[in-house]
Write a structure and sequence with these properties.
single chain, about 260 residues, alpha/beta, Rossmann fold, 2 domains, five-stranded mixed beta sheet, 10 helices, 10 strands, about 40% helix, elongated, UROS/Hem4, lyase, 4pyrrol_syn_uPrphyn_synt_sf, EC 4.2.1.75
C-alpha cells in the first residue's frame, strides 16, 4: 500500500501546461510525489513583431546606455541568450523573482535585486527605492512580453525614471491533443496547473468549464485573480510564485482530503 505521506499524490493525473526544462522538472517533482504528470504545453513563445526595436535596445545595453535592466520572466532570459546580449559592466539587473534570477545566473548574467517578499512587478516596485538608494532619475530598460501589463514601466516612470520599455517576445496559444481535451472534459484529470494568465486563458478556451472533481491550482494570487477574471474556477493557490510552492499547495490539498475517485 502506498504511503500517503511519502507519495501524497499517488494515482493523481496532473496536467502540466508548459513543456521544456520547466515542464520536465515539474513532471519529475510530481512523479516523486506519486503523481502521473500529463505534460501538454498550452503556450509557446515567438519572436517580437518589432525586432528592430529589440535589437536597438540590446545594442544600447551593451554600450552602457542604461543604469538598470529589469527582467520579469525566465523567457526573457532565453531571449537575451538567443541574441547573445551583452550587459555593460556598469549596468545592474533587477529580477522579478527567484525563478527569473536563477535563469539569469544560469545564463551567465548577474543579478542585483530580487524582491525579498513579493515576487512580482509590484513587489519589485515596492523595494525599488530602497535598493537603488533613492537615486532619480535612472535610465532603465524594461524587457517584457507583448501581453504583459506595463505595471513596472509605468510605476518607474511615475516616480521620475527614464524608462525604455521594449517587447522581447510574444506569447501564443498551443492547442493540446484531442485526447487531453477529452480527458479533462470527462473529469479524468485530478488537477490542472495554471502557471500564468496566458495559461489560464488557454485552459478556459480549450477546456471550457472544468469538472468539479478536477482541482484548478494556480501558481500565485496574481494568476488566481487573472484566472477568475477569465471565468475559471480556482481551487488551490500557491503561497509563492514558484513551481515548488505550486506542487506543495497541491500536496496540501491532497492530504487535506482524499484523492478524487476517477
Amino acid at each position: 500500500m502506498t504511503n500517503r505521506l511519502t507519495k501524497p499524490l499517488a494515482g493523481w493525473r496532473v496536467l502540466v501546461p508548459r513543456g521544456g526544462p520547466w515542464g520536465d522538472q515539474v513532471a519529475a517533482n510530481l512523479r516523486a510525489r506519486g503523481a502521473h504528470p500529463i505534460v501538454a504545453p498550452m503556450i509557446n513563445f515567438a519572436a517580437t513583431d518589432d525586432a528592430p526595436a529589440l535589437d536597438a535596445a540590446l545594442t544600447r545595453l551593451a554600450a552602457g546606455d542604461f543604469d538598470w535592466m529589469t527582467i520579469t520572466s525566465a523567457t526573457t532570459v532565453d531571449v537575451l541568450s538567443s541574441h547573445r546580449a551583452v550587459v555593460a559592466p556598469g549596468t545592474r539587473i533587477a529580477a522579478v523573482g527567484e525563478t527569473t534570477a536563477a535563469a539569469l545566473i544560469a545564463a551567465g548574467y548577474h543579478v542585483d535585486i530580487v524582491p525579498s517578499e513579493d515576487n512580482s512587478a509590484r513587489g519589485l516596485l515596492e523595494e525599488w527605492e530602497t535598493a537603488t538608494a533613492g537615486v532619480i532619475p535612472l535610465r532603465v530598460l524594461t524587457l517584457r512580453s507583448e501581453i504583459a501589463k506595463p505595471l513596472l514601466s509605468e510605476g518607474l516612470r511615475r516616480v521620475g525614471h527614464d524608462v525604455e520599455s521594449v517587447v522581447a517576445y510574444r506569447t501564443i496559444g498551443v492547442p493540446v491533443s484531442d485526447q487531453v481535451v477529452a480527458d479533462v472534459k470527462a473529469g479524468l484529470v485530478h488537477a490542472v496547473l495554471v502557471t500564468s494568465g496566458s495559461v489560464a486563458r488557454q485552459v478556459r478556451e480549450q477546456f471550457g468549464d472544468i469538472p468539479e472533481r478536477t482541482l484548478v491550482a494556480c501558481i500565485g494570487p496574481r494568476t488566481a485573480k487573472d484566472s477568475r477574471a477569465l471565468g475559471l474556477r480556482v481551487d488551490v493557490i500557491a503561497s509563492e510564485r514558484s513551481a515548488e510552492s505550486l506542487i506543495e499547495a497541491l500536496v496540501d490539498a491532497a492530504l487535506a482530503g482524499t484523492a478524487p475517485a476517477l
